[in-house]
From TrEMBL:
Protein name: SAM-dependent methyltransferase
The species this protein was found in: Nocardia speluncae
GO terms assigned for molecular function: methyltransferase activity
Coiled-coil boundaries: none
Keywords: Methyltransferase, Transferase
Keyword Methyltransferase: yes
GO BP term, pick one: methylation
Domain of life: Bacteria
Region of interest: Disordered: 245-265
Length: 265
């Protein structure tokens, strides 16, 4: 890690990746992050449930693609801090030879990369690249050093595109990466929606409690990111309801985080 990244890591102020790690039930946070996270939970008490359900969606989607569709390459863009059931752990538990590239440019996330990557298999590859997803051409160029783009790749955007403020920018990022992949590749994506007033309020106040600007969007805008792709059943839905091989558990209150998995024809 560069000296520049080391210098930018602060443990005396809240950090959004550590706050999210706390909500997910991880252990990589400081007291200042816990205080900020609890303040967020006071605004939207279901945020921890949303965070944990989004991780469970990742687990189900990656396992399905590795076990049922034979995907052996995963490009996880905007990965955040590790907790449990990370992309490479799930994929390599099915196929040890799987190759996983994590993309992030957050110095706190990158500081944890070495610990995370010690759990990779001997047969496979798991690595980080330090790149901002707002520059998808660079993401692809860097990932080509590890992944073979003539073979299918699962491209993953797990709750991160709300940080891209403009709809056109979100589309450009997703489409630029997907256009670099071959037929038979997959998009795995979810983002926060504006269905719940409490969640919208939390996102609006996130900068005040130590988070980053994040804008939940109408379901229709997130669904549009899958245009031209072939959806995997059950299609576009709440992350807590995305179960590809079994009925989803009943829920009286959908989580305002929607997405799905879709194949590039």
């Amino acid at each position: 890690m560069s000296d520049e990244h080391q210098r930018t890591i602060r443990t005396d102020i809240p950090h959004p990746a550590r706050i999210w790690n706390y909500w997910m039930g991880g252990g990589d946070y400081y007291e200042v992050d816990r205080i900020a996270a609890d303040a967020g939970s006071a605004v939207y008490p279901e945020i921890s449930t949303l965070a944990k359900e989004s991780r469970r969606f990742l687990f189900r989607a990656v396992r399905y693609l590795a076990a049922e569709k034979g995907i052996r390459q995963f490009l996880d863009i905007g990965t955040g801090l590790p907790t449990v059931q990370n992309t490479h752990e799930v994929a390599q538990s099915v196929a040890p030879e799987s190759r996983i590239v994590y993309v992030d440019n957050d110095p706190v996330v990158l500081a944890h990369a070495r610990t995370l990557l010690t759990s990779t298999t001997d047969e496979g590859v798991a690595t980080y690249i330090d790149t901002d997803y707002h520059h998808p051409e660079i993401v692809v160029a860097d990932a080509r050093h590890i992944l073979n783009f003539t073979r299918p790749v699962a491209v993953m955007f797990m709750g991160v595109l709300g940080h891209a403020q403009r709809v056109a920018e979100r589309r450009r990022i997703v489409h630029t990466v997907l256009e670099s992949t071959t037929a038979g590749s997959y998009l795995v994506l979810w983002d926060g929606t504006d269905d719940d007033a409490g969640y919208v309020r939390l996102c609006a106040e996130s900068a005040d409690i130590g988070g980053e600007s994040y804008r939940p969007r109408p379901q229709s805008e997130i669904r549009a990111l899958f245009d031209g792709l072939e959806p995997v059943d059950p299609g576009f839905t709440s992350v807590a309801q995305w179960y590809p091989e079994e009925p989803a558990p009943r829920s009286d209150r959908p989580i305002p985080a929607y997405g799905g998995v879709a194949r590039k024809p």
